């Protein structure tokens, strides 16, 4: 017995010693701690309140950039909690990293006084200062009572946007359907479903003998916008997300009871009864949706471009290029100007911030400034000259076949390129590099884009006389300064009437929209009426609209510098 | 057992025995002190955070400097019929899980105990607890696949056996949901839950079986008269503890498997709190819901404990 | 022990009823084994299947397009070595200390004559049903100076009320005469606890040890909440959670990640991480299993 206890004690001792080792000694052996000229590398901790890609410490470009600018950020991403919970804990405990991207919890960080005001410091850091225009800085100040607590990261194009692929919401249709119909122009909802219906009638199964599916509506959890917010686009409004905003009266109005909504759901009901829509669609999980898309059976759907990337990758790897999709900007009637494809918006509610815990605020700002150095920008997006890309005699960048293959391999990218590690630190997202000729993003370099296309894709673009996928959509910059208004919802107190109204509206829609679509043709009108009654009587949608209208007014005032 | 305690406290003891008792208790009291301090620090001190339920809490300010809101959060919680509905869903799913969970876990333990081959016993037991290590997201993915109207094996079986003529879309109709959740829970946890009963069965003295054999009892009789009574105290204790957990019907399963068409039966209190609370940064609402659950739980275990006492069974405290 | 096992195996007459009983028993067990084995086999198959192929669905018992990529992705992770060490350390230390401390409390509250018995039981039982919430819990840990420390994995979870009750219930079933005869011999409580109760409670201690070890092995929330800025204190499950959310996030920000396709998908990485973390527990299992499957007897004094 005594011997046995001795054994237990010795196990505890041994493991304790082991544990002490971790806590006490050992500083990581990894990457160098000094630059080539012997300067100490400054390291800043950075927390990003969103899920993100982890990059190994020995990632090649991460190390190269660190060496070049003598500083680096150690990035931690959100895991397993909501942004507000995680940041809430940090605030309560008054424990911050050096730098932080607070996502939805940014207002809480500001309110808690956790962020350093950068307003007077920015002049010393020209790259950072020039990253945003004076107007944009004014808007940021307007959102923070005259301070600059954070630098908005995204949606900055250096010059004109060169985006080639629709990443946002659109109607999508398989290329083979267009080919079958001899490349028609599809402009209205009716044309779209007519095309799908006639294709399906002529081709009930695909080349592998699988049954084709006409149309899918993804509505798993938060991804349900594919069902819910389509009416705003059909009515010619941009993706404000929560409501449509009248450009004249500046009032927010829900898009659930507008005529376009009824027209859309009437059409879906008709299609559901005609067997065009997958009967499983309302109970399908996201995984099942991606599985169906990847099988190449689904002819069309509404979705955001990024959401089915994996399915497209899978289709391409199976050689089913004809089953991939092109975006369409449909309306109910022909001739309505659409706003599916708009420039990335400036979100003044979030950005990279430096916290009160940072001991070297100027160093951190210098680090961010250096990341926007023209040479470093190239390193962040293109990589290393001669290794990741080549330069021709005219100074144009291009990639060899091998380099192109490397850049497609996610694992290789994870080991070698820095495009993801600093993805939440300021950088130009589109447009041209400072040399004025090459695109910021390799994927948007015209020669690279064309080279990267498959033969089938070239055929599709040539059939329509287009250069890139976004040519299928009308582009407009005509969006209000309030855009996107849905982000205002994040700032509402959860106990406010408007927030509760929003939650109620969601509940009613989640239940009734599928019911409306699944109703038999003869029951459609009565079901729609019941839905509308429920919507108008059970939800405080007016309060919701008023709260959004208020937010619109506020944002306009900020944009006009009146705040 | 009971009588002994009664005797100990009722009979006046001889003086030397009495002082011995005190001395013995002194060691026990001494041993208890660290436990009392520990539980106070780690479990009761932080309960000052319950004050949040009566505030509009915003992180960053001291607890006592927050904006006070009286019973506002509780009113928000109990605002309307939605809360009653999620309360009903929670209770029903919990009860289904509780009952099915008990029966299957005890049943499995008893069946395993009847397996004579040590190898077979260990093998079945090992396999049965493996699903415990799969996360809900994996298990739910499999459930969705198995029940799919298009490719799911259940629908194909039912069709082949001519029980139905068209595939059932299990997740489109409210009537199936609670059953699906109940079965999912059994599927994942039966093996794991049976471990505790297996270990309790080992404490049953073999002499009892031998005596029963001599009396000519068959196997079912032995299960009824030896194994079940041997498990009784474990069953009662776990039952009382689980009754206290009745408002925790789970969160992930319902969240992953639910959808708009059946949300009226799928939402639980935890999902409700997430939708109205945490996702919008309302720590106060979550705390209020926590207090509500605690109060109900404590009431229930007190009642269950009283009932056990009245029935002369093992009590929790 | 061998001898005891044999002694325990119930001896039955081979009557018709007994055979019928056996048939039904095995039928139930076989169906049960098939049903519970399926999700595990399916997860294994997915973990060895090519990620892009998996998202097409339709993987059941065997991989369709074999690939080690998922495991490579998991095992290649930078910090996995240190995370494994920390996890082993916390599992060993955590299990032993919690088991010992909880058993001691169970012993104290199983002493029927003890005056504080009911009080102690109640204050611990209540901890199962009251929860202070995320922020108060965090502040406590911070004020105790346990942030960024290994001990945050051990100290806050040292006593589990549930396990205490489980052990106590088992102890209640042990004849009092054993402890009493030891007392007559002049043994103190510490000695009775260590030398009589602990050995007698082996089956339940093995069960509880398993509960604790699995809990310690699988926990990641504490590592994330308290130690996420100290990479030397990261745990296996936390690293794998990070990996998983990192794989799932590829569609997160479009601006940032638009150029790369992925070879691994959340579904396949999730399957591989599940297998990777379950294996050590499955290996440890037989060592504990023999205590609660083979049927030790209490022996010694009869009631």
Describe the structure.
The complex is a heterotrimer of chains A (563), B (317) and C (303). Chain A is an alpha/beta fold and 563 residues long. Chain A has helices at residues 2-23, 60-69, 83-93, 106-111, 126-131, 134-143, 175-180, 189-202, 225-228, 230-234, 259-273, 286-294, 309-317, 361-371, 374-381, 401-408, 410-416, 446-451, 455-464, 497-518, 524-538, 541-559, and strands at residues 42-48, 71-77, 99-101, 157-158, 169-174, 213-216, 244-245, 252-253, 298-304, 325-328, 352-354, 390-391, 397-398, 430-431. In chain A, the strands form five sheets. A four-stranded mixed β-sheet of chain A has the order 2-1-3-11. Chain B has two domains: 15-70, no CATH class; 79-310, MetI-like fold, CATH 1.10.3720.10. Chain B is built from 14 helices and two strands. A two-stranded antiparallel ribbon of chain B has the order 1-2. In chain B, helix 5 packs across helix 8 (174-201) and helix 8 (174-201) packs across helix 10. In chain C, helix 4 (69-75) crosses helix 15 and helix 8 packs antiparallel against helix 11. Chain C has two domains: 2-67, no CATH class; 78-262, MetI-like fold (Orthogonal Bundle), CATH 1.10.3720. Chain C is mostly helical and 303 residues long. Chains in contact: A-B, A-C, B-C. Chain A binds chain B through residues 82, 84-85, 87-89, 91-92, 94, 104-105, 108, 111-114, 219-221, 224, 279-280, 282-283, 285, 287-288, 492-495, 499-500, 503, 507, 509-511, 513-515, and chain B through 56, 58-61, 72-73, 76, 79, 82, 140-141, 144-145, 148-150, 169-172, 255-256, 259-261, 263-264, 275-285.
């Amino acid at each position: 017995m005594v011997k046995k206890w001795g054994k237990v004690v010795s196990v505890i001792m041994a493991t304790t010693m082991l544990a002490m080792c971790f806590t006490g000694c050992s500083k990581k052996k990894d990457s160098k701690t000094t630059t080539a000229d012997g300067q100490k590398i400054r390291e800043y901790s950075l927390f990003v309140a969103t899920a993100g890609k982890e990059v190994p410490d020995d990632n090649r470009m991460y190390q190269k950039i660190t060496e070049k600018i003598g500083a680096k950020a150690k990035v931690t991403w959100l895991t397993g909690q909501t942004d507000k919970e995680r940041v809430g804990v940090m605030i309560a405990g008054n424990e911050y990293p050096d730098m932080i991207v607070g996502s939805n919890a940014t207002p809480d960080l500001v309110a808690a006084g956790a962020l350093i005001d950068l307003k007077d410091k920015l002049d010393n850091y020209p790259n950072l200062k020039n990253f945003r225009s004076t107007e944009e800085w004014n808007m940021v100040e307007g959102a923070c009572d005259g301070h600059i607590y954070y630098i908005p990261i995204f949606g900055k194009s250096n010059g004109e946007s060169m985006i080639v692929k629709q990443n946002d919401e659109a109607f999508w249709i398989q290329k083979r359907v267009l080919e079958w119909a001899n490349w028609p122009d599809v402009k209205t909802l009716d044309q779209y479903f007519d095309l799908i219906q006639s294709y399906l009638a002529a081709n009930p199964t695909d080349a592998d003998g699988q049954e084709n599916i006409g149309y899918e509506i993804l509505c798993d959890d938060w991804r349900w916008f594919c069902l819910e917010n389509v009416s705003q686009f059909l009515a010619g409004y941009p993706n404000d997300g929560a409501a449509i905003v009248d450009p004249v009266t500046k009032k927010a109005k829900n898009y659930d009871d507008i005529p376009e909504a009824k027209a859309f759901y009437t059409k879906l009901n008709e299609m559901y009864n005609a067997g065009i829509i997958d009967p499983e669609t309302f109970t399908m999980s996201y995984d099942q949706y991606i599985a169906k898309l990847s099988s190449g059976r689904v002819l069309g759907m509404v979705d955001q471009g990024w959401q089915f990337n994996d399915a497209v990758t899978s289709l391409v790897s199976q050689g089913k290029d004809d089953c991939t999709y092109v975006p369409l900007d449909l309306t109910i009637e022909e001739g309505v100007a659409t706003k599916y494809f708009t420039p990335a918006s400036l979100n003044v509610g979030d950005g990279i911030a430096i916290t009160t815990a940072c001991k070297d605020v100027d160093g951190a700002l210098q680090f961010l400034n250096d990341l926007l150095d023209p040479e470093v920008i190239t390193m962040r997006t293109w990589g290393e000259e001669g290794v990741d890309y080549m330069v021709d005699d005219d100074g144009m960048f291009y990639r060899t076949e091998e380099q192109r293959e490397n850049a497609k391999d996610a694992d290789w990218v994870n080991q070698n390129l820095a495009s993801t590690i600093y993805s939440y630190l300021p950088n130009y997202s589109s447009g041209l590099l400072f040399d004025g000729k090459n695109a910021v993003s390799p994927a948007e370099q015209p020669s690279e884009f064309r080279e990267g296309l498959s033969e089938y894709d070239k055929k599709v673009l040539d059939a329509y006389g287009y250069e890139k996928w976004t040519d299928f959509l009308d582009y407009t910059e005509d969006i209000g300064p309030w855009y996107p208004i849905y982000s205002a919802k994040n700032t509402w107190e959860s106990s406010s009437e408007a927030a509760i109204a929003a939650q109620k509206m969601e509940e009613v829609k989640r239940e009734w929209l599928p019911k409306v679509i699944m109703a038999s043709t003869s029951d459609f009108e009565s079901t729609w009426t019941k839905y509308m009654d429920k919507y108008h009587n059970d939800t405080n949608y007016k309060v919701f609209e008023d709260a959004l209208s208020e937010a619109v007014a506020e944002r306009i005032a900020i944009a006009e510098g009146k705040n | 057992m009971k009588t002994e305690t009664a005797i100990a406290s009722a009979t006046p003891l001889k003086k030397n025995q009495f002082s011995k008792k005190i001395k013995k208790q002194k060691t026990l009291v001494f041993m208890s002190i660290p436990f009392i301090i520990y539980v106070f620090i780690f479990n009761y001190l932080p309960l000052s955070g319950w004050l949040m339920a009566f505030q509009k809490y915003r992180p960053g300010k001291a607890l006592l400097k927050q904006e006070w809101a009286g019973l506002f959060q509780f009113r928000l919680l109990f605002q309307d019929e939605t809360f009653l509905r999620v309360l009903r869903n929670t209770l029903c799913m919990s009860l289904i899980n509780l009952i099915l969970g008990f029966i299957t876990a005890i049943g499995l333990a008893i069946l395993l105990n009847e397996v004579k081959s040590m190898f077979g016993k260990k093998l079945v037991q090992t396999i049965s607890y493996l699903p415990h290590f799969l996360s809900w997201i994996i298990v739910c993915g499999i459930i969705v696949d198995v029940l799919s109207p298009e490719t799911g094996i259940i629908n194909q079986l039912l069709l082949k056996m001519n029980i139905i003529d068209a595939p059932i879309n299990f997740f489109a109709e409210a009537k199936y949901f609670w059953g699906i959740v109940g079965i999912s829970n059994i599927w994942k946890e039966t093996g794991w839950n049976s471990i505790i009963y297996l270990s309790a069965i080992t404490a049953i003295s073999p002499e009892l079986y031998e005596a029963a054999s001599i009396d000519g009892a068959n196997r079912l009789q032995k299960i009824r008269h030896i194994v079940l009574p041997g498990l009784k105290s474990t069953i009662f204790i776990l039952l009382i503890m689980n009754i206290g957990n009745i408002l925790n019907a789970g969160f992930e399963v319902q969240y992953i498997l639910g959808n708009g068409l059946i949300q009226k039966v799928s939402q639980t209190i935890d999902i409700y709190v997430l939708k109205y609370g945490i996702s919008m940064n309302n720590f106060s609402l979550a705390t209020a819901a926590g207090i509500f659950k605690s109060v109900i739980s404590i009431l229930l275990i007190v009642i269950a404990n009283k009932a056990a006492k009245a029935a002369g069974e093992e009590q929790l405290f | 022990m061998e001898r005891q096992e044999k002694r325990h195996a119930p001896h039955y007459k081979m009557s018709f009823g007994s055979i019928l009983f056996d048939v039904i028993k095995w039928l139930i067990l076989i169906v049960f084994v098939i049903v519970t084995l399926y999700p595990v086999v399916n997860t294994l198959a997915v973990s060895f299947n090519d990620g892009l192929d998996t998202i097409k669905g339709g993987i059941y018992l065997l991989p369709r397009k074999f690939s080690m990529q998922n495991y490579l992705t998991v095992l290649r992770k930078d910090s996995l070595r240190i995370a494994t060490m920390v996890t082993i350390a916390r599992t060993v230390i955590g299990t032993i200390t919690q088991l010992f401390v909880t058993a001691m409390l169970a012993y104290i509250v199983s002493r029927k004559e003890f005056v504080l018995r009911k009080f102690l039981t109640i204050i611990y039982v209540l901890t199962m049903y009251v929860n202070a919430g995320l922020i108060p819990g965090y502040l406590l840990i911070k004020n105790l100076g346990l942030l960024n420390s290994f001990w945050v994995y051990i100290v806050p979870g040292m006593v589990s009320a549930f396990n205490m009750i489980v052990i106590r219930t088992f102890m209640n079933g042990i004849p009092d005469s054993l402890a009493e005869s030891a007392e007559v011999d002049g043994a103190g409580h510490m000695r009775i606890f260590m030398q009589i109760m602990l050995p007698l409670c082996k089956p339940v201690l093995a069960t509880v040890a398993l509960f604790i070890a699995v809990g310690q092995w699988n926990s990641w929330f504490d590592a994330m909440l308290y130690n996420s800025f100290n990479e030397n204190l990261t745990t296996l499950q936390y690293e794998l959670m990070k990996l998983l959310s990192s794989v799932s996030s590829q569609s997160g920000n479009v601006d940032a990640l638009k150029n790369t396709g992925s070879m691994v998908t959340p579904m396949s990485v999730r399957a591989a991480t599940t297998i990777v973390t379950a294996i050590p527990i499955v290996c440890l299992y037989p060592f504990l299993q023999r205590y609660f499957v083979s049927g030790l007897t209490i022996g010694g004094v009869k009631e």
